[in-house]
Amino acid sequence: MPAAVAERARSLGFDVIRVTSPDAVVEAGLRLRAFVADGLHGEMSWMADTLDRRADPRVLWPAVRSVVMLGLNYGPSADPLANLGRPAVGNLSVYARNRDYHDVLKGRLKEIAGLLARETGAAVKVFVDTAPLMEKPLAAAAGLGWQGKHTNLVSRDFGSWLFLGAILTDAELAPDAPETDHCGSCRACLDACPTDAFPAPYRLDARRCISYLTIEHAGPIPAEFRAAMGNRIYGCDDCLAVCPWNKFAAVSREAKLAARPDLEAPRLADLAGLDDVAFRALFSGSPVKRIGRSRFLRNVLVAIGNSADPSLAPAAEERLADPDPLVRGAAVWALSRLDPGRLTAARRAAETDPDVRAEWDAAAAAGALFLS
Question: 114: part of which helix (H) or strand (E)?
């Protein structure tokens, strides 16, 4: 690695930069095939569609000879799970409390890649979680950390809090040594999962993962997972936050991605009232914007239903007339938990969407009385 490239990477905020070879993730590719074959990827059909390219960077770009992996520490300055004890507010994953990390990293990576190209005369390609590339196994092979029992990257220096970026190049760069696994007998991350999404260490069932359910899953949240979601309205940091290696992380965060004050602990009542324009304005530049208003309000209403706070019932009741059935169905569930008396027979009779009517039926089966 040219010294000038490593120096520039650190000046742009990256905490670590190392190199691996494109053939270093063969075993990870085999594990990915098994993951998809078992259906553990859920609705993420793009994983199956791009399986060959994910399993081998040389399929993605045959000319690649080296992979430069970079990590940026985004560890929070306060307890990322503190909001879980405040049911009237929503909890967003740490990475989503400010700008979209794709935007944060990509411009910097392009500058570093440009310098690498000038220093080596080689071609380069830049990736930030937007292409079929197995960043975490490649990062482990490069020595940035190891994939822990929660399947995320763990670093001895930065715990479970590293954004990853990759530069592929046709230059022949000396690879760094891979990191070894330091999880030992610890299973804190596995035990912390609210939905038991880990059928075994180092194996994730995405269909049970709250991050998947709140972000990737398109329909109603399966009933069996709603209570376990609590007030997690975008992603879930539980398995990351309890990792003991976090305590060894560098103390100085340099405010690289300090949380926006309005996204640290947003009130559920305010979020439930967002129309499309207000949603887009609030989450402009945020990864939350990508899931759209309907999925987001679905998550918010599940959190309201879990709040045990009857004062939030009016916010849910207002969404019974929402134009999107996904939102209306979540509102029915929330009210069935908080204040079933607001679920009137007239409103039930007016509903035509089959999925929403199923929510009404479930509320009735749970003992809700629909008064006229």
Answer: helix 101-120
